Amino acid sequence: MVEVGEGRIVSIESDVATPPPAAARLDGLTIPGLANAHSHAFQRALRGRTHAARGDFWSWRDAMYGLAAELDPDRYLALARATYAEMALAGITCVGEFHYLHHAPGGTRYADSNEMGRAMIEAAAEAGIRITLLDACYLHGGIGEEPNEVQRRFSDGAAEAWARRVDELADGPEVRIGAAIHSVRAVDPDSAAAVAEWAGGRPLHAHVSEQPAENEACRAEYGRTPTALLAGADAVDERFTAVHATHLDSGDAAILGGAAATCCLCPTTERDLGDGVGPARELAEAGARLALGSDSHAVIDPFEEARAVELDERLASGQRGRNSATDLLAAATAGGHAALGWTDAGRIERGAIADLVTVGLDSVRLAGADAASAIASLVFAGAAADVRGVIVGGREVVRDGIHVEVDAPLELDSAIAAALG
Ligand SMILES: [Zn+2]
């Protein structure tokens, strides 16, 4: 029995013979809240619309830019609210929104230059989940290149201007403000150092080595890998999260692991974009922590994300059992929350934030699981659709598989139609 008070876990007791009359029974397997450590909410509108297209990461990026060009704060709020509601239904209690769509078309500032970021914060509140807004510095269209027409919406022009804007955002009970270096393509080393300094002890994320072309351009210009460049900018330490970390040199894993940084893998997106398979086992052995993100939201299913880390590595390595179900679930819960600055969430223990996700073990996927096999069954065969109940900070957000506030399918329909124009 878990007792909750003021949004936190007050006590945990097992084998309670007669629970108090007010106690709510959670039928099934209850796990800690799941954290989606890497999200670009607006990309949810691309689902099903780019998957069959021929091409690669870069041609997909053109389609994504076409969508980004259409969004304004109202459309973005509606789309993010529905997307975050989909996350809540999948058991996600906290999202890390890697946010770079800051400004109006052409780079014109909105009256409040943080209007788009505030829309993300409002969307998370309305969907009932916590958010870490990872406000991304994005200055260049590529190394040494001016931003193009769409990218001007992302750019503050200089790291100092980025910092002045982000200074106006504030933490709240359900909100943390963090920083992001979009990538070594979009942020030069001096600007990366300025962002890292601004971040202080806050979460600091960056896209790292998602594509071989990014590594080649970085080496050609700076003579080192993106990871080494970011380490040289004093970005890489325990508050740092390298997103993707797919194409690493052997020295990179040592840098990330030695710093006790987090690596956020996004396997369903990395698959969808043909990025490659990141070295999860090698990173963990080097000392890095792991987290998971649904990134472009090709699917939103933390269990699919978790098992993909192991199963994709099996395909690449020819070996089984490189990442245990328990470790994969830890990456999806405590690992992700820590990477987002919520070290007191993602675990069921006294004093932690009361995030509880109950998975029905009576579905056709999970029937037959017993106490010894339940976690492995959930991680390797479960689905977001098996989530029956979600409590975020002591508040019930999903009951019997239905979001209590947001009609997610209906809102996704209308928000995506509006976003696509
Ligand atoms: Zn991303």
CA gyration radius, whole angstroms: 21 Å
Share of β-strand residues: 15-25%
Shape: globular
Q: How much is the average pLDDT?
A: 96
- Please tally the helical runs, counting DSSP H or I stretches of 4 or more residues: 14
The chain-level structural class is alpha/beta
**Poorly predicted tracts of residues:** none
Strand order of the largest sheet: 4-5-6-7-8-9-10-11
Strands, count = 15
Helix content: 25-40%
Give the distinct bound molecules: zinc ion
Biggest sheet layout? 8 strands, parallel
Order of helices and strands: EEEEHHEHEHEHEHHEHEHHEHHEHEEEH
What would you say this structure looks like, in words?
The protein has 421 residues and is an alpha/beta fold. The protein contains 14 helices and 15 strands. The chain has an 8-stranded parallel β-sheet. Helix 2 (73-89) packs parallel to helix 3 and helix 11 (302-317) packs across helix 13 (374-381). The radius of gyration is 21 Å and the shape is globular. The model has no long low-confidence stretch (mean pLDDT 96).
Any descriptors?
36% helix; binds zinc ion; 14 helices; eight-stranded parallel beta sheet; 421 residues; five-stranded antiparallel beta sheet; alpha/beta
